[in-house]
Amino acid sequence: MAKSALLVMDVQRVIVERFGDDPDYLPRLNRAIDAARAAGIAVIYVVVGFRKGYPEVSPRNKAFGEIAARASAGGGFAGGPATEVHPDVAPGPDDVIVTKKRVSAFAGSDLDMLLRAAEIDSLVLTGIATSGVVLSTLRQAADLDFGLTVLSDGCLDGDAEVHRVLTEKVFPRQADVITIDEWTKAVTA
Question: Selecting from 3.40.50.2000, 3.40.50.720, 3.40.50.850, 3.30.70.580, what CATH number does the domain 4-188 have?
Answer without folding.
Answer: 3.40.50.850
